[in-house]
Amino acid sequence: MLSTAFFVSASDRATASTSTTSTSGTLTVGIVSPGAITNLNPWLAGGQSAITTDQLRGLFYITLLLQAPNGTLMPQLAQSWSSNANATVYTFNLRPNMEWSDGTPLNASDVVFSFNVLLQNPLFDTLNGFLVASLIKKVTALNSTAVRFTLVHPFSPFLQYAGLGKYIVPAHVFSQVSNLSNYTGSANPVSDGPYMLVNWSAGATVLHYKANPHFYLGKPKIENIAVELLSPTANIPALLQTGEITLAQPTPSQVAGLKGQSNIGVSFSPGVSILSTYFDPAGLLMFDDALYPYNVTLVRQAIATSINRTQIVDLALNSYGTAGSQGQLPTSLTQWIPPNLPNYTFNPAKARAMLQSIGFKNGTNGYLEFPNGTAWQPQIMDTGGSASSVVSVIVQNLKAAGIDASESVVTIGSIVKGLQYGNFDMILLGTSRPPIPDFVLGVFVTNSVTPVGTQELDYHGWARWSNATVWNDLNQARNVSSFTQQYNLYANAQQIMAQQEPLVTLYYAQNIWAYSNATIHGWSKVAPQGYQFPQAPLLMALGVPSASSGSPVNTTYLVIGVIAVLAIIGVAVYAVRKRKG
Amino acid sequence: MSAYGRFLLRRAVYAVITFFIALVMIFIIPRLVAVNPVDIIAASQQLPPSAIRQLTVEFGLNKPVYVQFLLYLKNVILTFPPNLGFSYEYYPISVWKLISISLPWTLFLVGTSVAISAFLGTMMGLYAGMNRGGILDRMMSYAAMTTQSLPYFWIAIVLQILLAVVLRVFPIGGAISITDVSPPYSLPWIQDVVYHALLPMITIVIATTPVYSIIMRNTLVDIVREDYMVAAEAKGLKKSTLYNTYGLRNGILPVVSLIAVHFGYVVGGALLVEIVFSYPGVGTLLFNAILSHDYPLIQGIFFILAITVIGANFIADVIYSYIDPRIRYT
Fold first, then answer.
1. Partner-chain residue, chosen from A36, A123, A413, that has the shortest CB–CB distance to B33
2. Which in A83, A357, A563, B326 has the greatest CB count within 10 A?
3. For A531-544, what is each residue's pLDDT tens digit?
4. ipTM of the complex
5. Which one of A13, A182, A205, A578 would you mutate to disrupt binding with B, by most B Cβ within 10 Å of its Cβ?
């Protein structure tokens, strides 16, 4: 688990604390969003806005289970759960006496309704969270607090997929909605989360929440939360310093400017909280594993040996990340990672020697050539921007190992085309994956490789990498519920993947939060565990802040400024008059 | 048909042709990139092939290109509101919905700013022209040279640092206070919106007012030498009547053109100003759409931009012909 650091103290609030108008009980949060949020339908959210939408919905819709930052499952609406030995029947036992925010009882019928919506609308299932609809044969309420899922076939990650990946919604509200596809959210949704959204309208740039007195853990101590959607270019350090917001996610480059601020605390979390799990933002270097020379294992290993992953983390992520594990799983999943996985320590000389051992020759320009003497000039595709800073490090690394690589900045459409048709050497792919071994290990594994040049719609086949043992291991792991059995199968799959290196996991980026530490109290209780906004354990631990109502006017500077402006105008008038006279 | 009718018809035909060319280009250019929007959505959300096929049908991308074009024409011309497709970034939200949310903010911010600039600039130019060589004339020349040589975004950043971060007179950005819970369109809400718009408005006004004033002033300087002005002055007309009645009406023609040009700017959003102040207008929407390669949204914004610019120029032609009847007969 990645460590977190909070510096909570009632230390100085740098400026104008006496002139601050207190709006006691309001936590002001800035969330970077690609734009306004227009849809809070619990089953629909697209593109990058999905992350923002989930952060906003996560305050008022929650899931059966919650995932701790180390990957373990924790109770949320469900207080216990069980499965049969062959992973085909799962039972969730809800907490007794729960209520929706309008006082209606929250029980098993709500869970059954929530999942039946997915079974009746498969597109809802695919557009948000994990795919479960095709797995479920039937979902039934055993009594008011017990729900049983019977699956079509064994699937051991079902607890994570259904427990973490799907919101439970109020049946008494949504059963009245005639067309769920066109539903874009209510102004005052009925909530099972710690807060209730109030007076929302599509496109609003500020969202207001009130504490939910019916929340199963009790009413949160902070009465109000106001969330402002910030532009990706927003000056987050200035917003925090002036007190306009008290909690936000700065970029790695903005963190440097915050470090000297005694009134601003900075913390780090592993991955981004989406639904009730964490999605680890990872950088992957994809090969076209069906295309020569990347279909040669030793070539992939040599390229992995050429890359200095620590340097990428330091230079491209400002050190806010960790180097990737070659068994694919993020380091937060320690319990699933076997010891002694093959690793590819940065060693350009060794990488060059590896390539020479399979016939690559030294060219006249100092770079390696194919065994037949033709030039080898691989291109690494990316979409520019921050991806370029990663690729530029890789290009330098590869050149040092004798590989005449170059960057090719293309559109996202070209990247997708390249992946679908297999027309690429290497692609830098930014992904966010939940810390669920089945999901991470299986994401780019197929049992049938589509030929290069033929369109592959299924993303599992985009690396064009297939391995019967890995395929069987992952399938077998889905059929057993014992940890030991699953561990052994996943460990074997990781050993093979780390040895075969179908893609290079470059890094896992950290999720950064910064906050005004004089106005937010209680972070130290839960922050070291890695919880983050909008998860209930964090929100329930926070104390009542005394947030600024806006930007207090700095009167000293204001007077100086007005005098300066008047002086400039006076001098100008005098100069013109003198010249005219 | 009268000469004025023929003039208006000719202008209307030009506008329709320009609009059609814009429509065709907006349709063709994204297709030259050869990107299937469903592929982008599928990749970002890791959709299974069954969902990809369902979305392909929903988007009409399984149809031949000429059928897609006819459907596109039908959707944007014969449908109201125009069906501009879905955004990749916000699927399943329509492009029109996103634009309709951002457009009022931009119309308010940039529309108001341009109106203030045009009025202030025209009045200042008129006064400077009437008092050539005076203090205001000289000061305006210096100020105009200074502001014209500074990029918009630089003025915005300086004002933001000075007035929002250091002096804290204005908010740093956004369109509304995070702690404002007053109902939309209530008086406190309107006050808050105006308060947040002031700093970006000041930026735009500082940047654009000198353009209007210089044009007005220079046009007026030429006009005062015209025979009809000399004759009117010799007739004993008061200076204010002379300038306000004869000078302003003739000198305002280039300003009308400039306002028409600025209308495109109104809808396109003062891109950089909106970005600096995190203002949720069309400029910010366009910027984010470009960052995320959201082609349907970019197309939609350009579609609205094209309509506005063509419409504004048509209206400018009409106003022009009203102010200066000679134009109807050229």
1. A413
2. A83
3. 788 888 888 888 75
4. 0.73
5. A205
